[in-house]
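Q: My labmate handed me this sequence with no annotations at all. I'd like to see what the chain might look like in three dimensions before we decide whether it's worth expressing. Could you predict it?
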Amino acid sequence: MLIAKRIRELRTDRNISRENLSKEIGVSVRTLSYWENQINEPKAGYIFKLAKFFGVSADYLLGLED
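A: Here is what I predict for the chain of 66 residues:
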């Protein structure tokens, strides 16, 4: 799951804690952890929120573009 890798890379490259990111997009820290550890994938609405927060496209998060 490329999205897990992209979320983790964006978060760590910008030195954002899981706690802060989870508050910004409205999910629990556990949910964010599940996404980053490939246990679950975010639904479309959260992909949109992540893309907007990080200033990237949803296609980038999904691995459809570099």
